[in-house]
Design goal:
363 residues, 8-stranded parallel beta sheet, 15 helices, 14% strand
C-alpha cells in the first residue's frame, strides 16, 4: 500500500512541474509513472481486470472439482430431462421450476456426445420421466441409447404411477434397470410424504411393476428416501419379498433453491432426519443383502447430474449451480463445473454390475 501512495504522490508532483518543462522531461515522467504501475501489479499481485469481471471469474471457476487439470470421465450420468411431476413429494430436490424439455434430436445429440466422452451408463430421471409425451419420448431415448449408442446400461428412476404394460412391450428389451421410488409400505405415510395420486395405491402398483419387470426381463430396483415420517418403519419383509437387485436407501437431503430457501418449491426441513436416526434405520435392515445406503455425505457430490438443458449441476455448495450446456461447449468443458467427486462415486459403489446381460437374473 505504501508503494502505491508514494508512487501516486510522486506522479502528481512531477506532473505539476512538468507543465513548464521540456518534452524530454515529460517523457521521463511518463516512464516513471509506467514503472510505478508495473511495480504495483507485479509486487502486489493486483489484477488489472475490472472488479465485476474478476468476481465473475471466481464465480465461474468455483464449481471446478479438480484444479490440477485431471479430467473427469462421465462413466455414469443422470439425465433429468424434465422437471415436471404428477406427485408432490415434500422433500423433492429436483422440482418443477421449468417445463422445458429438449427436442428429441437435440437430446440424442447430447447423449451421443456423452457416449463419445466415455459414458457407459445413462439414468433417465425427472421430475417424472413417464409424464412427458406419455412415456414415448423416454422410450425413444432408451431405445436410442441401447440400440444405436450400444451403452452397457440404460436405467430409469420413476414413481411408477404412469407406466403401462404397453411401454414394456415396446421398449422393455432396451432397458436394463427400472428403479421405482417407494418410501413406505403404509399408504397413509405415502400420503403424508406426498407420494400419491388420488385413490391409486402406490404399494399395489409397485407389485404390479415388479411382475412386469420379470415378464419383460428388466432388472427391478427400489429407491427409498428416509425421512421423519418413515424412519421408524420396518420394511424387511416387503423388501425381501419384492427381491430387487438393489435397494437404494437415501438420507433426506436439503438443496437450497429446490427444497429449502425463499425460491424453493418444497420445504424439506420438516422431513430431515439426523445421521443417528438414519443409521438406526440402516441397522434395522442390515439383513437385507441388496441394501445400498447413501448418507448426505455420500450422495451430495457423487452424482453427475444433467438438467433439462443438458447442463451439469454442481451441488458442492448446497445448491445446484449449472455449468454451460454440453450442447454449447462440449462435455469436456462443461464437466469441469460439475463439482463431481469421482472418489466418492467409487467409494459409495457407484460402479457395479449394471447391465442386465451380466446380472444373470432368474427371470
Amino acid at each position: 500500500m505504501w508503494l502505491l501512495t508514494l508512487t501516486g504522490f510522486a506522479e502528481k508532483l512531477l506532473y505539476a512541474f512538468s507543465l513548464k518543462l521540456t518534452p524530454v522531461w515529460k517523457i521521463l515522467i511518463h516512464l516513471y509513472s509506467s514503472f510505478g504501475t508495473l511495480l504495483w501489479s507485479t509486487g502486489g499481485k493486483r489484477s488489472s481486470q475490472p472488479r465485476e469481471k474478476r468476481e465473475g471469474k471466481r464465480e465461474e471457476t468455483a464449481g471446478v472439482e479438480d484444479a490440477s487439470g485431471v479430467s473427469v470421465n462421465p462413466v455414469s450420468v443422470n439425465y433429468h430431462f424434465t422437471r415436471q411431476c404428477n406427485y408432490k413429494c415434500g422433500f423433492c430436490f429436483h422440482t418443477a421450476k421449468t417445463s422445458f424439455v429438449l427436442p428429441l434430436e437435440e437430446a440424442k445429440r447430447g447423449l451421443r456426445m456423452l457416449k463419445e466422452a466415455g459414458m457407459e451408463k445413462i439414468n433417465f430421471s425427472g421430475g417424472e420421466p413417464f409424464l412427458h409425451d406419455r412415456g414415448e419420448f423416454l422410450g425413444k431415448l432408451v431405445k436410442f441409447c441401447k440400440k444405436e449408442l450400444k451403452l452397457p446400461s440404460v436405467s430409469i428412476v420413476s414413481n411408477g404411477s404412469l407406466i403401462r404394460e404397453k411401454w414394456f412391450k415396446d421398449y422393455g428389451e432396451y432397458l436394463d434397470i427400472l428403479a421405482i421410488s417407494c418410501d413406505s409400505f403404509d399408504e397413509q405415510i405415502n400420503a403424508l410424504i406426498g407420494r400419491g395420486q388420488g385413490k391409486k395405491n402406490h404399494v399395489e402398483n409397485l407389485w404390479k411393476l415388479r411382475r412386469w419387470c420379470a415378464d419383460y426381463r428388466v432388472a427391478f430396483k427400489i429407491n427409498s428416501v428416509i425421512n421423519r415420517f418413515n424412519m421408524e418403519e420396518d420394511m424387511n419383509e416387503q423388501i425381501q419379498s419384492l427381491n430387487p437387485v438393489r435397494w437404494k436407501v437415501f438420507q433426506c437431503l436439503i438443496i437450497e433453491g429446490e427444497n429449502a430457501g425463499e425460491d424453493a418449491l418444497r420445504e424439506a426441513e420438516r422431513f430431515v432426519v439426523s445421521d443417528e436416526d438414519f443409521e438406526k434405520f440402516l441397522d434395522r435392515h442390515k439383513a437385507v443383502s441388496c441394501l445400498v445406503p447413501e448418507s448426505n455425505n455420500k450422495m451430495k457430490d457423487s452424482y453427475l447430474i444433467l438438467d433439462e438443458y443438458m447442463r451439469f449441476l454442481d451441488c458442492t455448495r448446497g445448491r445446484k449451480d449449472p455449468s454451460k450446456s454440453i450442447l454449447d461447449v462440449g462435455v469436456e468443458e462443461a464437466i469441469k463445473f460439475s463439482g463431481f467427486d469421482e472418489k466418492m462415486f467409487l467409494k459409495r459403489g457407484g460402479k457395479y454390475v449394471w447391465s442386465k446381460a451380466d446380472l444373470k437374473l432368474d427371470w
